[in-house]
């Protein structure tokens, strides 16, 4: 991580085991944390994903990383997870990892297998306190893989030489800080044109699964706010809330 980025961090917390690295940062916030900080752990006992899912977090050398970022009160956060996802892909690409794609809003996939997930949590007050959690699979023991309801992959499966985890963590944190700084200044505008080159869903039949119904639609990229565009019954619609689960239809 560059000295410039390191200096922006109030704290770097490293643990053997926590409930969730996101929770650790929220607890620090309650104790007065007010500037960017990072938390990493070898193991999470209650790692969480989007839509209340569990994030399997065995002590197997994976990356469980969270970054706290206090945005000013008037920041428009639409599409933040998209900006972070594009940034993370760029860092992973620099390590020679190929065929990386993003599944809206923020799963990092290789050949439709999930390599990493991003969880953005925000609490609004005088400022928009935001914790961005990243789970990146280095190694997935079979027992863990069996518990995950979707195809997964890991750096161990993808790379002949698995990157050094500490070095990669440093680069990912640096990239997240740069992404957040750019996003805070300019919003999503610099990221939207990059989406199509990583879009795992482009022009693909997908299922939108909500509590009430499942519909099959065709994905059509994102709009300027980072909402998913999709075609259904010959009309273009957008989806901005992420409590809908998205599956490949075939
Ligand atoms: C998802 O794909 O559903 C998002 C997964 C995010 C997992 C990471 S691991 C580090 C941080 N701590 C958590 O409890 N969750 C995030």
Query: How many separate domains make up the residues?
Result: 2
Q: What is the CATH superfamily label of the largest domain?
A: Bira Bifunctional Protein, Domain 2
- Alpha-carbon distance between the termini? 41 Å
Rg calc: 18 Å
Q: Characterize the biggest β-sheet.
A: 7 strands, mixed
Gross morphology is: globular
Low-confidence stretches: none
Give the name of the CATH architecture of the largest domain. 2-Layer Sandwich
Please state the structural category: alpha+beta
CATH class of the largest domain: Alpha Beta
- What level of helicity do the residues show? 25-40%
Concise structural overview:
By secondary structure, this protein is of the alpha+beta class. It contains seven helices and twelve strands.
Structural write-up:
The protein is of the alpha+beta class and 250 residues long. It has two domains: 193 residues, Bira Bifunctional Protein, Domain 2 (BirA Bifunctional Protein, domain 2), CATH 3.30.930.10; 44 residues, SH3 type barrels (Roll). 27% of the residues lie in helices and 34% in strands. It contains seven helices and twelve strands. The strands form two sheets. The chain has a seven-stranded mixed sheet with strand order 1-2-3-7-6-5-4, with helices on both faces. Strands 11-10-9-8-12 form a five-stranded antiparallel sheet, with no helix packed on it. Helix 2 links the parallel strand 1 and strand 2. Helix 3 runs antiparallel to helix 6. The radius of gyration is 18 Å and the shape is globular. The N and C termini lie far apart (41 Å). The model has no long low-confidence stretch (mean pLDDT 94). Biotin (BTN) binds next to helix 2, strand 3, strand 6 and strand 7.
């Amino acid at each position: 991580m560059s000295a410039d980025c390191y200096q922006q961090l109030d704290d770097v917390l490293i643990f053997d085991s926590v409930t969730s690295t996101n929770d650790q940062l929220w607890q620090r916030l309650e104790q007065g944390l007010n500037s960017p900080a990072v938390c990493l752990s070898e193991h999470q006992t209650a790692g969480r994903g989007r839509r209340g899912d569990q994030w399997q977090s065995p002590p197997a050398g994976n990356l469980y990383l969270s970054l706290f970022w206090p945005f000013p009160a008037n920041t428009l956060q639409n599409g933040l997870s998209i900006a972070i996802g594009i940034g993370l892909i760029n860092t992973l690409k620099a390590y020679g990892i190929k065929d990386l794609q993003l599944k809206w809003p923020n799963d990092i996939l290789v050949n439709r297998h999930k390599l990493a997930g991003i969880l953005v949590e925000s609490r609004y007050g005088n400022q928009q306190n935001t914790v961005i959690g990243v789970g990146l699979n280095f190694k997935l023991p079979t027992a863990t893989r069996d518990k995950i309801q979707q195809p997964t992959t890991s750096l161990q499966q993808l790379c002949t030489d698995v990157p050094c985890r500490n070095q990669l963590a440093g680069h990912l944190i640096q990239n997240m800080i740069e992404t957040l700084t750019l996003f805070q200044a300019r919003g999503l505008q610099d990221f939207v044109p990059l989406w199509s080159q990583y879009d795992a869903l482009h022009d693909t039949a997908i299922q939108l699964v909500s509590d009430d119904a499942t519909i099959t639609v065709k994905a059509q990229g994102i709009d300027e706010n980072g909402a998913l565009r999709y075609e259904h019954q010959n009309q273009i619609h957008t989806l901005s809330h992420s409590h809908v689960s998205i599956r490949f239809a075939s």
